[in-house]
Prior knowledge:
This is YARHG domain-containing protein. The chain is α+β, with helices and mostly antiparallel strands. The chain is built from 3 helices and 6 strands. The protein has one domain (27-99). It is globular, with a radius of gyration of 17 Å.
Amino acid sequence: MIRFAPLAAAAMSLVALAPAAAVAQSSGYYAATALEAPKKASFVTQNTIWKCKDGVCVAPRSPSQDKVMCERAVDRIGTLSAFSVGGAAFDAATLEACNARAR
Length: 103
């Protein structure tokens, strides 16, 4: 039993993370974290409705390209500290290019 303790601990940590991932996934396909908390609880870009809470805005999947969705979010809420698509975060260079659109 002692041999399995590290394995059990690792499995428990994954179980603890699963609810957080499920909440993020059910909240939206896109997630944009602004440097400054958005002033509004929601906004619309083209045909996509974004909902914001605790500084993070989420939106459902859109037919637009991922970089376009990031740029639209930047246009509405300003410079982003993070942007993810389907749970995968933009790398630093891609996020920097997206933020170049900030007003």
